[in-house]
């Protein structure tokens, strides 16, 4: 009998990316740019986590 899979999630990366990017943007006077960059980086990491998890199982 096959063991049930426990899928992993990359949502934490998106949230952390938004937080870090927003804080970086505020400190550099470009809050929206930092937030957008952080979300984009977090989304890229989340997609990478999803692809690795999909290949694993």
- The SSE order reads HH
> Nearest-angstrom radius of gyration?
15 Å
Strand content: under 5%
Quick one: overall form? rod-shaped
Which structural class do the helices and strands define? mainly alpha
Give the fraction of residues assigned to helices: over 70%
Oligomer: single chain
User: How far is the N terminus from the C terminus?
Assistant: 15 Å
For the report, how would you describe the main beta sheet? none
Mean pLDDT: 91
Low-confidence stretches: none
How many distinct helices?
2
The overall strand count is 0
Describe what you observe in this structure.
It is a single chain. The chain is mainly alpha-helical and 57 residues long. Helices cover 75% and strands 0% of the residues. The protein has helices spanning 11-27, 31-56. Helix 1 runs antiparallel to helix 2. It is rod-shaped and about 55 Å long. The model has no long low-confidence stretch (mean pLDDT 91).
Question: What is the element layout, followed by pairings?
Answer:
Blueprint: H1 11-27, H2 31-56
